[in-house]
Amino acid sequence: SSGINAEYGGAVFPLAPLVALLCNVIDVRIDGYRILWKNRRYIAQRAEDIGIWQYILEFLNMIGVVVNSLIIAHTLNNNGSFLQNIENKWLIAFAFEHVCFVVKFIISYIIPDVPSDVQFKMRKEQFQVNQLFEKGIAKKSPQGTPNNNNNNNADNAV
Fold it and tell me: How crowded is residue 158: how many other Cβ atoms within 10 Å of its Cβ?
């Protein structure tokens, strides 16, 4: 709010708008410097998977299934004769929970962890790396070794 007072306080101090403009320009420059150089994103590094987060998410998934099955069992309508007994509600919660776990494990078994297009790109990249290594070894190997096509130098000289 002091910046606004300085900007509109030209009647009291005639150079106030110029000082406010100078302060704003300096502030924008400092903020730009901080954003561009001080608060930069880290350089991404390759990772095989999401690490410990996979286990955390699986744990939260299991807790969610258990809690939701208990909520469903607790909120069932008591009008039916089968649901009058508390053991029957626990039986429904137990059955629902196990059905959800079976469906979850079937889906996780059917869907691969790595999509096929990503697997293809990884195999392609590995092939390219192997090709580069082979070319590098072929260039650096001495003449007359099995990596060179000119195996029989003595026979070719005759």
Answer: 5
- CA dist 89 and 5 (Å) reads 68
Measured CA to CA, the distance from residue 3 to residue 8 in angstroms comes to: 9
Amino acid 5: pLDDT: 57
Residue 68: which residues within 8 A CB-CB, separation 6 or more?
100
- Please say whether the beta carbons of 6 and 19 come within 8 A: yes
Cβ neighbours, 10 Å, residue 93: 19
Tens digit of each residue's pLDDT (9 = 90 or more) over 37-51:
887 777 878 777 788
∠ CA 138-143-146, nearest 5°, is 60
